[in-house]
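REVIEWER CHECKLIST
Item 1: Sequence provided? yes
Item 2: Single chain? yes
Item 3: Sequence as submitted:
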Amino acid sequence: MGDDIGVTLPPVVGERERRLVRVVDARASDAWWSDASDGCRSEAEVDRSVEGLSPIFVGRTLEFHDENSEYRFIAASPAAEPDLWAEFVSGAVVAYRKYGVESAVEYDKIIDGVSTTYFFAALDAKGAVVGGSRALGPYGSVDDAHPMIEWSDPVQQSAIRRVLGECLPHGLAESKMGWVAAGVPRRRELSAAVARTTTYCMELLGARYLVGTAAENTLAMWTQCGARIVDEIPPCPYPDSRYRTRLLLWDVRGNRSDERTRELEKLLTSDIG
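Item 4: Structure as written out by the authors:
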């Protein structure tokens, strides 16, 4: 999830939000499947539909203001906001370089934005990107998940494949590259906000489960945001031998809160793209 800040669902989508999702679906040109979509759907998509999971993010640029940190958050696809995406990735490289692990950003692999469904960018009062995270999925295969790269041992990969395979039919998303710039005002509050918004992958993408990985020294922050440490998977030395990285899972059914509802409602009604 990112060493700089540390990184089970019907989503918080009531009838009011469902109506809004349908409206956004009708306007979006690059929408994923949803309750309002036509056409054939896969077995996994049908399973998720039965569970009442509909994606909120459908390619539009959304935003909300976080009162705790006093930063503005934007959720957008790389294609919709290419300049913001480039600034976000560059900021991540700087943040990771502080710990000598900028290679974990995988800049050349991700900069085209194709692998990223959307990203959350935290903006300061001047409009500069000072943190955020990126979302991937929902996945069609367990092998798409980044933990399959982080754990190189075949036995551990097999165990991860089994764990994530149980989540896949219900919708499995992933959050990566959580970071916060050094020296920014209210950094603790911003870090908490970034950590919290990474978990919105579930509601935004209509997935019940979210997978992530994080170094052991950051686990407290992620468990406070609803993560469950998958104890049966031992830590791995990723991105290098200085770190003990753990596998994390979220279930949207255990992540309901008034704060989530308020912030998701702000996102639903913003639609600045």
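Item 5: Key structural point noted by reviewer: Residues 9 and 252 are 3 Å apart (CA to CA).
Item 6: Recommendation: ____
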